[in-house]
Amino acid sequence: MSRDLSTINSLAAVLVNPGKPLELRHIPVPKVGSRNVLIKTSVTGVCGTYVHYWKGDVRLPYPVILGHESIGCISELGDGIKTDSIGNQVAKGDRVFWVSSLPCGKCYYCMVEKDLTACMNRKSYGNLWCCDEFPYLVGGYSEYVYLSEGASFIKLPESLDDREAIAFGCGGPSITKAVEWAGGIGQGDKVVVQGSGPVGLYAILLAKISGASDIISIGGPSHRLQVAKKLGATLTIDIFEKRDPGERIKQVLEVTEGRGADFCVEATGFVGAFSEGIEMTRTNGTYLVVGLYSNVGNASIDPSKIVRKNMRIVGSKFWEPRHLYKMMHMINQVKNEFPIKDIVSHTFDLPHATEAIEAVEKVETVKAILKP
Ligand SMILES: [Zn+2]
Ligand SMILES: [Zn+2]
User: Fold this and answer.
1) Residue 246's Cα: distance from chain center in Å?
2) Is the pLDDT of residue 2 over 50?
3) Any idea which ligand is nearest the CA of 103?
4) pLDDT digit string (tens) for 173-196?
5) Which ligand is closest to the CA of 150, given by its number?
6) What is the C-alpha separation between 371 and 351, in angstroms, rounded?
7) Is the pLDDT assigned to residue 52 strictly greater than 50?
8) Rounded to 10 degrees, what is the CA torsion of 364, 367, 370, 371?
9) CA 41/CA 57 separation, integer angstroms
10) Which SS3 state, helix, strand or coil, does residue 263 take?
């Protein structure tokens, strides 16, 4: 692998100190080796976890170029790479969605369990990779991203445009994997989705397409709940209006014939949602916890409820390339039935990356993206 620097620089927004504005830096682009790919970033999402990264709730190997959900065009392709990660022929100029996670392929979870999401030595673009280390361009908040050997990327279907593909960000593949992990949503299921950010919105769309009969979206503010309705929510409960969890639980029980949800998805990022979700899930039901990744804390529950309700509580983190593939092709199939493109509510450029994160923190956005 060559480590010579070519003459191009890439403008990048870098998280150097939590709580401080992202710094703009010009970073030299390394020369592309035979097993590497250089991508010119077209769009990159502002994930809800960046609010936590930015505040310092999760420690990262600073300085870090954020951006773990990104689409771009192949600018340089190593001569050893002929296809994307699922076997499609690729050439310079092709649009691809690259996968942030880089598993080691050698640990117990990679080799015995065959679960790349549980890799013990995982590197991750956009968060767990210091940009002072080779190959430097290791996050989507940069004009160029350098894919190391083994990094996955998938060619976009031609008929799927960038805004549609990025609309749910990492929430799309995360929910695709999580719902699969939990055994799937069934026909006629009554589904509760806690949280109406991109993760929750994709759970609503997936429930709708899976044939759920009732989809109750609990979240806010109202502009997000309006989108939830367009994606298939049959009832919305605005947490800014109905502030008492007891009232929300009562309403869910009323519309689920007194039992609660067959399948409940936590996509809030608020620890307090956990005990509420337990109450909203019916006997023999499934409670899927996805959103509480960066939000550490203790929730108070009576564990006997889990026993007496025969409950399945399933946690899920990350996703594999196949989940991204499934999500992209599903969206491509339904994009004319649902207003996928409109989910992208805010677009920023790199110099305004900090403002983008602030807009997500204030819940002004449905989905914010950057165009480097
Ligand atoms: Zn994310
Ligand atoms: Zn591994």
Assistant:
1) 30
2) no
3) 2
4) 999 999 999 999 999 999 999 999
5) 2
6) 10
7) yes
8) -120
9) 27
10) strand
